[in-house]
Write a structure and sequence with these properties.
Structural class: mainly beta
Number of helices: 4
Oligomer: single chain
Largest sheet: 6 strands, parallel
Helix content: 10-25%
Order of helices and strands: EHEEEEEEHEEEEEEHEEEEEEEEEH
Shape: globular
Strand content: 35-45%
Distance between the termini: 58 Å
Strand order of the largest sheet: 6-8-11-14-17-20
Number of strands: 22
Length: 257
């Protein structure tokens, strides 16, 4: 079988009037590179920029889908990694996409060295397991990658907002983070590198927490590990364990720290 491979930009892909459902389209936009195909049978999927691009509407709508496995990049959703643009909204689009689709586990990697955020990055509350598969995991793998802020925010966040979310989120997926530097500005009160909860068996390895007011605040963690973690010039405490009671207005949950 001969398959045509066509090199295009995202704009060219969206503008095609006569796509080929047997062709593979290689998108060459920097940061969004990758293989795509036209799913001629799909006229209902919604454009998410990262893995689905659409053109038109109704019966003439064309849906293009990215070909990938588990590795994804925040750049697919628009992150710049220029150390100036607030990249948090693009991270959040990526993580919100994870909650909507059924693909099991993911590994987030990075195409740049430093990402600036002015608002918090919200990890998925839940991931959907594939049929007959083990519980999903989310690995955020960024050796030497820095995420920095100069704002009074929780940089990485995952906390239930209601009583019902506690059981929904608890142990839903395993979180693995390694190699990332979370930078504060060494002066802003209220900066926290991570405020996260409801994980079983989470693993944090070769992580660096630098110049924030508080390093890590964790709620309802069990069997989780911090290996080769470095806390440097932080303002108050490095790791703080709290009950969920003050967050969702419930009694302390069994097993909470």
């Amino acid at each position: 079988i001969n398959t045509r491979i066509m090199i295009v930009t995202m704009a060219q892909l969206r503008a095609m009037s006569n796509p080929d459902d047997t062709a593979i389209y290689y998108m060459r936009d920097r940061g969004k590179e990758g293989m795509w195909y036209w799913d001629a049978a799909d006229i209902t999927s919604v454009d998410d920029t990262g893995t689905i691009n659409t053109q038109g509407s109704g019966g003439t709508k064309r849906v293009y889908k990215r070909i990938f496995q588990r590795i994804i990049y925040p750049e697919w959703w628009g992150a710049t990694g220029d150390n100036a643009t607030n990249d948090a909204p693009f991270f959040n689009q990526m993580f919100a996409w994870m909650e909507r689709v059924t693909r099991g586990s993911y590994e987030v990697q990075f195409l740049h060295n430093t990402y600036y955020i002015a608002t918090r990055i919200e990890l998925p509350r839940t991931l959907v397991s594939l049929p007959n598969a083990s519980s999903p995991y989310l690995r955020i793998h960024g050796p030497g990658v820095a995420i920095r802020t100069d704002q009074a925010i929780d940089m990485i966040w995952r906390v239930p907002l209601t009583d019902g979310q506690v059981s929904l989120m608890n142990n839903n997926y395993k979180l693995l983070m390694d190699g990332i530097y979370l930078y504060g500005d060494r002066s802003t009160v209220g900066q926290t590198a991570m405020r996260i909860s409801c994980f079983y068996g989470a693993e944090f390895e070769n992580m660096h927490y630098l110049g924030v007011d508080t390093g890590v605040i964790i709620y309802f963690f069990t069997m989780s590990t911090f290996r080769s973690s470095f806390f440097t010039v932080n303002g108050s405490v490095d790791i703080k364990m709290q009950s969920l009671a003050g967050i969702v207005g419930t009694q302390e949950q069994p097993g909470s720290a």
